Amino acid sequence: MAPVKxxxxxxxxxxxxLNDLDLKILNVLNKQKKDILxxxxxxxxxxxxxxxxxxxxxxxxxxxxxxxPVPKTRGIILRITSNGKxxxxxxxxxxLN
Length: 97
Hints:
- This protein is 44% helix and 12% strand.
- The protein is an alpha+beta fold.
């Protein structure tokens, strides 16, 4: 079997699935004993709502986070999935700033 070429050509970008903020969001969700709203996560991490939504959208697309609407409100509950917990285990030895 021939070796796989892993080099990028000039102008190509690498694709990073998770950055340190994504891991921090997963960490916050993993530590919660009860349901947590998106607004609570924005306050814990001191992020703007649009910034957090962008990261949550990506984490949801990859299956690391699930979103659940709160009845009779516009709130959204976030929950870490089993795949999200697996990602935290894989990255647990990487220090987060």
